[in-house]
Amino acid sequence: MYSTMNTSCRVLRVAALHSKREEEYFTMSSDDGDMENQAELEEKTRLINQVLELQHTLEDLSARVDAVKEENLKLKSENQVLGQYIENLMSASSVFQTTDTKSKRK
């Protein structure tokens, strides 16, 4: 899952970079100030900003997933230690020992 997120981030970065280069090209090549080109440029700028916002959101979510995975591993390890501790206590306690009723009757 993490590699898919990394790939998605790379795709978004390339798309944003490509759009930024197009924006620079349109800015330099549109000397006539055509309203249609200006509207296209504004739409591309809006889309670039949206892509960048989504990219940051994806990066934040990816970091959160990593933190949760790390916490999960830590808790699993702690649970194993506690389970072993409880097992040791139970085996050391006479309350939890199995009794052999046949040997007591003799």
From TrEMBL:
Record-linked Pfam families: DUF2205 (PF10224)
GO cellular component: cytosol; Golgi membrane; trans-Golgi network
Presence of the UniProt keyword ATP-binding in the record: no
Residue ranges that the Swiss-Prot or TrEMBL entry lists as coiled coil: 44-78
Topology in the lipid bilayer: Peripheral membrane protein
Localization of this protein: Cytoplasm, Cytosol; Golgi apparatus membrane; Golgi apparatus, trans-Golgi network
Keyword annotations of the record: Coiled coil, Cytoplasm, Golgi apparatus, Membrane
Top-level taxonomic group: Eukaryota
Record's keyword annotation contains Zinc: no
Family, as annotated: Belongs to the SCOC family.
Function summary: Positive regulator of amino acid starvation-induced autophagy.
Name assigned to this protein: Short coiled-coil protein
Source organism of this protein record: Sander lucioperca
Record lineage: Eukaryota, Metazoa, Chordata, Craniata, Vertebrata
Originating gene: LOC116064268
